[in-house]
Amino acid sequence: MTQLTWLAPWHSNPRSRPTLLCLPPAGSGCGQFRSWQDALGDRVSVVGVQLPGREARWRDPSPASVDDAVAAIVDEVRSLVSGQPLVVFGHSFGALLGYEVTRVLGNQYDAWPAALIVAACRPPHMWIGAGHGLASDDDALARLFNGRDLDDDELDEDSRELFLAVLRKDTELSLTYRDPQRAPVRCQLWAWGGDRDDTVVASDLAEWQDYAAGEFTQREFAGGHYFPGERLDRVLQELDPLRSDSPLGGTLA
Fold first, then answer.
1. What residues contact 248, with CB distance under 8 A and at least 6 apart?
2. pLDDT at residue 136, rounded to an integer
3. pTM (predicted TM-score)
């Protein structure tokens, strides 16, 4: 198996279980998904995607482009996930990366995931050039960061500057994204949003339907742009493999 750099599996035997691949929002590390493994239990392997420049990879240089990041992620996914169903969950910028990972797995390797779940994410055509103002505007970047409602008592000025630097690098990375011309994914596509999200509204999520060659579902949760963390109990309930309408439902041995 390829040495894993981009992926962080938390199951003791990840190759033996259906995989929930989790991609965090811009400026974040995948450690936020570590608790999902405990919550979902032994029946699912939760795997985080770790971009360079954060957590255990803080010394690693940023990828040159979205395409480079996706290629590296896909290489490790193909090594880790074999013969078991795969569900891709991405939050905001992580959902854009998840869409591309899904496309590459399906189109290049005929290995479509069972489902792609995009949370708080505009559809791909709305990302083209959208980060230009954010990357160069310190105030706009700070407002996006402040929306995470982090504990100021646990976040000193140096830590805050480090987080903002990572967020800026991810924003710059998003500017390398190329328009996929609404290329569809041939798997279930779920678009999730927060009812108080001013960044990605319901009409934005609805446009994801243009990218669905199969079943499309749009759902709303209480919360803002970072609702997956605000309403983690509800999100995990939807992902519970014991639910018949879960994207992991019916896929387990």
1. 18, 20, 44, 85, 87, 114, 239, 240, 241
2. 53
3. 0.90
